[in-house]
Amino acid sequence: MDLSSISPTLLVASIMVSATPILLAAIGEMVVEKSGVLNLGVEGMMITGAVVGFAVAVETGSPSMGFVVAALASALLSIVFGVLTQLLLSNQVATGLGLTLAGLGLSALIGKPYEGMRSPTLPRIDIPGLSDIPFFGRVLFGHDPMVYFGLGLVLAVWAFLKFTRAGLILRATGESHDSAHALGYKVVRIRLAAIFFGGACAGLGGAYLSLVRVPQWTEGMTAGAGWIALAIVVFASWRAGRVLIGAYLFGGVTVLQLNLQAAGVQVPVALLSASPYLVTILVLVIISARGQHGAPASLGRPFHASN
Amino acid sequence: MIRLERRPEPSKLWTAVTPVLAVLLTMVVGGILFAFLGADPVGAIRTIFWDPLFNPQFAGFTRPQLLVKAGPLILIAIGLSIGFRAGIWNIGAEGQYIMGAICGAGAGLAFYPSESVLIFPLMIVAGALGGWAWAMIPAVLKTRFGTNEILVSLMLVYVAENILASVSSGLLRNPEGRGFPGSRNLRQWDAAANLELIPDTGMHWGVVFAFIAVIGAYVLLTRHIQGFNIRLTGEAPRAARFSGVIPARIILLCLGISGALAGLAGFFEVSGPAGQISIDFNSGYGFTAIIVAFLGRLHPVGILLAGLLMALTYIGGELAQLMLNLPGASIQLFQGMLLFFLLATDVFTNFRIRIGTGETA
């Protein structure tokens, strides 16, 4: 066992990379849940984003194009969920599960010809001078653009929900759709927009997995990342800042266990590989033991304007 | 203007019609999908739904597979449906299935090479207990701390997969297997083998248990007070509490039943069709069973039929892979689509479609 082989600088830098896909998916899902909709299909949308992003990047040679199309594809898939739950008033839990199952099948189908290929990946932004500062230079600078995009998105969502009128309406819809409807807001339209945004974010997160983090396509490669994103929203008590903490915590556990495996620590590999999931359960238990704080009051309840 | 008007009660007629409608819609859209993949749509649909049962050339091989695949699906889906009825979402059946298989096989292999008649019953009990114990984790966390059972049960699937990988190359590895991962083959050990009971039917003990589960669930839900309490909890939680139903007890009961049944399914699979514990022995039955439960309208008899249909798509999918070179994943998409169409057409069950803006009569 050789723990000295783990460099703290590289560790922090790789935590940021491994946290980004979950961060993107979780912040999108948080907006969806803030509007009062529980979309359990994050995993399905993420993996669709992963395969579409990869395929487009391979075909066009442009990873940026991959990200854009991945976001669109996942958003399109999320609209299927939106139409079913908002217009046809189906059960949100069942529909979300269906979205995940269908997404896993769809992605395996699309991805078959792309297995084992390599795709162009995003370049790192190296700022001469800044990136060379010891420790901080490598940690804060010299990442790929999506890492900063994720951080910016968290900030934007936080500001949107806290300071803008549209954000207030979105939150009102999630707290009491009947009141929002009585005030004349278009509940269904607002929720569809939120679902679309959540889908696009999940797609970006998925594409980040297949284009930057791994970067390869393998069937079922999200391995529960979408579900962990859902758990992080609960952990974060539906607050943007805490989503960031949750995602980095999870990214930290993932990277750390990989590093420990590589360093040959005397802990069963199965336990290390399962640790991200165990930590997620543990965190969920701690949060729920403190009581449900901040869940939107209308979360998961179907809305039907009777008149 | 099209408006939806909530029915006072779900329509009985539409409850029965929507699954059939969903299957037909899936066939049509699936046919279009297959056409895009470059296959003859009518031929592909026939290969999936007709040939496994009636093709004179190979129906003899494929027909027994129907019960082999339907057994675990029905067994798991029956358990899940009881929970879903009460609004308890156990979606980690795949994990409970794996743990049931590991515990059942492990309990038996501890006594290898004994030929005692008690081995098989012991393994059945251990399998059920393994699944039950794995489902008790989300159940206890939910009753003690109010933790979301959806997320916990799902996370435990990934934990179970890691345990499976560990035991198949460690604790349960076949000592005579030249170091290859995977346990002893239970089919070659008479005391533990779960072989066909009637030749060429696919009928094994797991299928027998599936049928018993269907009958048991039917009796529980329609004739027993606990079944009534379960349904009441799902449909009117407040009313249930006023009438003295203890929610924690319902949670423990529902997750316990579904976990034990999933564990049984896992054990019967590992001792029969699969034969041994190996890294990739689980094949997603735990997730497909969710579709089966919904397609069967959470009703025991419906689940029996839905399980058989879903088993047919599995076999037909494999056949289509062999004969028409269709990708195996397309059948997974096919199954997901089926659930989508079912949920979409369900709007007719719960709502009346009104056209025009006039007042309701």
UniProtKB/TrEMBL annotation, chain A:
InterPro entries: ABC_transp_permease (IPR001851). It is found in: Cell membrane. GO terms for cellular component: plasma membrane. It is a multi-pass membrane protein. The chain crosses the membrane at residues 6-25, 37-58, 64-84, 96-114, 145-161, 192-211, 217-236, 243-263, 269-289. Keywords: Cell membrane, Membrane, Transmembrane, Transmembrane helix. GO terms for molecular function: transmembrane transporter activity. PANTHER family: ABC TRANSPORTER PERMEASE PROTEIN (PTHR43370:SF2), SUGAR ABC TRANSPORTER INTEGRAL MEMBRANE PROTEIN-RELATED (PTHR43370). This is Nucleoside ABC transporter membrane protein. It comes from Allosediminivita pacifica. The lineage of its organism: Bacteria, Pseudomonadati, Pseudomonadota, Alphaproteobacteria, Rhodobacterales.
UniProtKB/TrEMBL annotation, chain B:
GO terms for cellular component: plasma membrane. Signal peptide: none annotated. It is found in: Cell membrane. Coiled coil: none annotated. One of its GO terms (molecular function) is transmembrane transporter activity. Keywords: Cell membrane, Membrane, Transmembrane, Transmembrane helix. This is Nucleoside ABC transporter membrane protein. It comes from Allosediminivita pacifica.
